[in-house]
Amino acid sequence: MAATRIAAVLACGSDHVSAIETGTPLAANRHTIDAAFLSQLMTPASIGNDALAYLIKTYQRAHQCGGDDFMVYIKKQCVSYTSLVLLQPGSFSGGAAATSPGEGARRMLDLLKGEGTLTLPSTFFGELVAHMKGLDLPAYPSAATNGGVLQAFFVGHKEAVVPLLIDATLKTNLVENYSWTFRVTSELLAHAPLAHVICESQYWLPTQSSARSIEHETLFGPLLRLSCIPETTHDPQTGRPINLRHPVGQACFGECSRRSKEDVDMEVGNVRLFLQGAQSQMVEILKRALKDSWMQERVFQWIAAVLTHNAIRTKEGYQFGFLAMKSSSHGFLFNLLAVLLKLCKPFADPEHPKSLWHKIDATWLVSKHRLNLSEETKTCHENDKDNQEGGAAHSGGGTDEIVVSETFGTISEFFFLAVRTLHVLSLDRMVKDSIKISRELQTLNQHVYHSVDGGEEREHLEGELARTLERKLCLDVVMQDQNLIEDMLMLARLCGRFLLRQGDAPKDVLPLPDTPPAIFKATPEFVVECPVAILKTVAALAPPVLETLGRDSLDDFVAFLMAYASAPQYIKNPYLRGKLLEVMSLLIPKGKEQGFEFGGGNLATLFQEHAIAKKSLVSTLIQFYVDIEIMGREFDGGGGMFYSKFTYRHYMAELLMYVTKFEPYVTSLEQVVAAPPQEFLRF
Asked: For the whole model, what pTM was predicted?
């Protein structure tokens, strides 16, 4: 019986294993089993000229037969011989045709992909990795140094498994079958020896990395690049911007100008589902990777490298010339933001009973262990010199000494990396692009309407209209994603709560202490701009979302905005305080002509009922009007900021006109007028 069973597993004649007697131990029969193995492997006809397929199927048959010593040994030999077939394909029959150095890697990638007739048993790949880790073969590095065979096969050259996976992912898009790329990446990182080899290779972080190389040449880069946001390049001679068409847009939205609105909305929704699926799969990969402390550090280093190389996006003039070509694509960064926001969810609710957000360690911002933010403008800076020296001035000495933590938990890492990603992404520019394209569509529609039917001009205009609509729909897939909007608002609320805590705000929020804490002085302005940018984006692209926000969230937003708009000792930059008041004006309920759908919703009574706004808004507006005139000169530096004050005064006028409809604000204005007249006269 034993011989017959083993012959069936090895798919060989019973005469090959007839020497095996029932009841005899494995040790007495290893030679017979090995001989049968080699006989099969060296006989082409017996294995269908495919040694690799034979070994995998034999492993599967042994696995199905149970876990006795004979089956365990056969599986072990299958794994051992498989490594030889992959690494030295000419060693056995059926492998002689595989002469390319990357043939074994290509076959392994196909097996991991799992979409063919030959698939890997569940435990096979893990055993193969473990075997390769300690394997020494001629012409391969030693297992004791440089990762050995494991390193050579998976990352050792351009035709190794990982670079082949990267190339395949780059050729995939959202509306094709992309799930296998995430599945294979997850499998590769699930085995510690292989994960270590990958993370120490150029396919994790290249030695001479750049924003573009990280996006195109590392394991995670192409996965996060799966998007539909079209990019812009520039003419190398004139520097003129050129709008590129995205393959997803061409495939899904190319004919949308001729389709009904219902069909277009359905197509947009379908593409968005694909995008959300890719983001969710990336989150799962990161969650599994972050369970290992060694891998966790490598993941955070990778994200930090992305943000460091994309710091150029935060500079004025980035969108002009060739600077944009040195940064990552919009779609890549949007996906990174979406993934980080999902990782923030477990601790982002400020009302959670465990108050996990209190574990956010603000000294992360000055630690330089992950990102060097010393050159970023700080909230309390007064001039360039003060900004450059601020980090050192507030990190030691006196009662204001900041004790920087030596290590930081994942809560701090997720939160600050998400805030920095939002800053690097520059939501304001993305919103302006979306609004600009909408205006172009209106203009083109008018031109098409007034053009001669059937003429060349009409044909040209319709083509331009179709391409512009395609670009707009690609942006809408991302910018109108309700899941992303909700997650961003969650981050905005959390950021506001965090900043109030950093400013030592009392329970009633105002007044703040006269002197800002040292840690708040060391906080970069972009942290304050985070909730501002999010609320402005939502107001511009999805006004009804503001109407449906819960009252607790709205109260938190107003508390944050009022606290720092009325505190020039905390926010020295009057233009940043102007942005806070601008966002306050966006909370004024409006009609359907401004995009609102629910009569204001919870915004309708917000200003009438919010105690902090009733007490401080009018005096803050009047003080700001003066500050933007006097202090604005110091921050302007002779540039175009002179004109910005008129924009902020417009928002201020809107606020005053609206709130003075209500008695508490009229009373507050009368109190300001009745006070010592110096400030009001300046106003």
From this structure: 0.91
